[in-house]
Amino acid sequence: LTCLTSLDVEGKINIEKWAFREISGSDLYSDFRWVRNVLMLRSLKSNAANGVLESSGTVDLTGLPGAGLHGTDLPGTDSPDNNELPGYSISVKANQLDIAEIIAGFKGNRKTARGKLSLDADLKGRGFGINDLKKNLEAQGAIELKEAKLKELKILDGLATFLSLGTIRNLDGCYMLATFNIADGIISTDDF
């Protein structure tokens, strides 16, 4: 991977059909540039999970071991030195994604969820491990759930804790629109 330190390439990618686990998509288009371990995603757009997904941003992999650079962090692990972590600044827009397909794509039971998810968010931070995300992730955006039915999902426990509601076992026919901020490991909203 040491060749990545001097690589300078740009281009466009078109993929007619794609799949990631249980999530399917089509008409993926991306315009990008890769310069010395920095991916600049000018645009990415795809039909995904029966909705539309769009993104743009920068991912700086400087410090990623095996790429001929300094650093000790591996993707998905935590690093004691924040300055050596790969960094990112990404905008994501998701419109009317099928919640059941997303849940199934991340090894959940498709039968425990239904409805549509929309998201408009800007994220930036350093590192990919859970502790790095808690410490470094900053985000702001809005999320919308339509006709959501969620049953016995672990995410409901996190939502209940966040909203100080005790326990949520099920959401049925739920509609929610909320803005959010993430900083210093804390998710906040002014909407509740």
What's the arrangement of strands in the largest beta sheet? 1-2-3-4-5-6-7-8-9
Biggest sheet character:
9 strands, antiparallel
User: Cα distance, first to last residue?
Assistant: 47 Å
| SS elements, strand count | 9
Overall pLDDT confidence: 80
- The geometry reads as globular
Beta-strand residue percentage:
over 45%
Low-pLDDT residue spans: 67-80
Structural class: mainly beta
Helical percent range?
10-25%
Secondary-structure element order, N to C: EEEEEHEHEHEE
Number of helices: 3
Radius of gyration over all CA atoms, rounded: 18 Å
Write up this protein:
This protein has three helices and nine strands. It is mainly beta. A nine-stranded antiparallel beta sheet has the order 1-2-3-4-5-6-7-8-9. Strand 3 (38-48) and strand 4 (51-60) form a beta hairpin. It is globular, with a radius of gyration of 18 Å. The N and C termini lie far apart (47 Å). The model is unreliable at 67-80 (pLDDT under 50).
